[in-house]
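Hello Y.,

Per our agreement to keep a running log of every chain we model this quarter, I'm adding this entry. I've kept the format consistent with earlier entries: sequence first, then predicted structure.
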Amino acid sequence: MTAQFTSGSQPANTGSFEELVTSGRPFVDKTAFLSQLLLSGRAVTFFQRPRNFGRTMSMDMLVSFVEMNYQDPGDTSRQKRLFQGLDVLEDHELCNDFMGRYPVVSIALSEVGGTDFVKAMVAMLQQIRKCLGKYAFLLDSQKQPKHLKKSFQQALKISASSEASLQNRRSNMDNAVALARDCLSFIIELLTSEFGQKSMIIVDDYDVPLQQATAHGYYDDMLRVVIGMMGSAMKGNNNQENCFFTGCINIAHQSIYTGFNNYSTSDINDPQFADFMGFTREETAKLLREYGMEERLPEVIEWYGGYNIAGSELLCPASVMRFITDAQAPGSSPTTFPPHCYRNIPSEREIIETCMRRPKNNDSTRLRSLIDGKAEKIFDLPFTTYPLITSKTPFGTSASLLLGTGCFALAQADPPPERGRILIRIPNKELLNYFSSVADQIFSAHNPAWLEQAGRLRDSLFDGTAEEVEDVINSMLTTYITFSSTSHESYYQCFLTGVLDLVSSEDVTVTSIPESGNGYSAITLQSKRDLKAVIIAYKESADDRFITMDNVCDKALELIKASKYERLMKEVGIADL
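Predicted structure for the entry above:
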């Protein structure tokens, strides 16, 4: 970590390495990993890490270090300025061999997506145009032959295609797909002929277009584009030095990696680069100390830590930095500002919501177990395609996807689970609040189906139809998830109070009555208009035998009748109890 600090300033929370190091604010120095990256002997490396874990920043740091000054090759003054005082400058041999020595072609696909393939291709072309624009100086070069300059100009023209042009003419779409396939290899060819030097390639968030395509039904079309882009640049390309690409999900067996020479994956089980992305406890402690917040470390770890990368316990860097930023903001107190949940990714929320809505009781039970702080065992299977999550998707598939994005983390176990299986858990309070916010939407009036069931429960209670009450409660409990309590009595009190509150009104009131020494809690449901009321008491049974449960129910009913509640109901005019 650098010692650079401007008193009273807020931390930089950006994906730009240059903005980070020139901000004059404390940050975590990961530059020592550049040696391992560049000397690993890996021609193609895929970094699989959770979202918000610093993938973009890490790749931008790499670009900042190795990319040459195209106007003045050999000039490394920018690197010396950016990396001054950082660990990597102590490795003189690495600096001599790599710093400012290579052309670099990088493209970010995090913004590529849309509700249909045409919109997604327009977004793809926008990123390609941004990439091409960086090398527009080649159009004025005397080294470039006329036919390549003409191709470059044509590529710029295609990259400016509108949605209407792609929609109306098939040839325009064909040209756009061809450009997406060939753009990286084409730029590399130009750079090699210009500088006589192999290029490095970086593709950030390669899997985002595939996730978007899966969600909106054009997966096969987008898969061909991604395979073409990655393949033309990385398979047997003599102009390529090293390739690095990042993502949350490793999609195997669909020819994306077929033909890659010396390809390797650095995933959450790779110890060599375990600490490359994410913050360690020590790094976080030092960062907080720079801001006078060292006493907040236990709380920060509890909220944003718990990620297990090859045995290293890491914290989510994006959330840590946002928390520090908010705590340092004018009007906030760094010593008392409460942690918040900063995660809000629509595609993730959809997956979590689908899991919570599952009709299978076992899936809901497993999710409740994770919410209660326990670990769940799932199969450790590679994805052969980007999974489409539906109500019929196995829980293990959804959980594996959420493990990749960072909603779950690997849990350590002694002894470890059997071969082919892994243990997962919810890593911290931020994610627990994330799941809770999704549940709040599902089990609320915002969900018409849930609201309809709540109305059925209210009506059947007032009607006294026990079988209907039993059916509705069992149906709702199949999917219901609460974050309030794990004890049985409190669980059902929370459930019933919350459900009936949804359908309460000025006429229909719901009152929760806590346990008051007799071992039973209760709820009253009262209709002022119809002069009806229902008293519900609940108690855990020692076992699931009918005779045991029947005895518990009889005792609960006796206590209700002997309590003041029946008398109070009659005093206010309730005729039907």
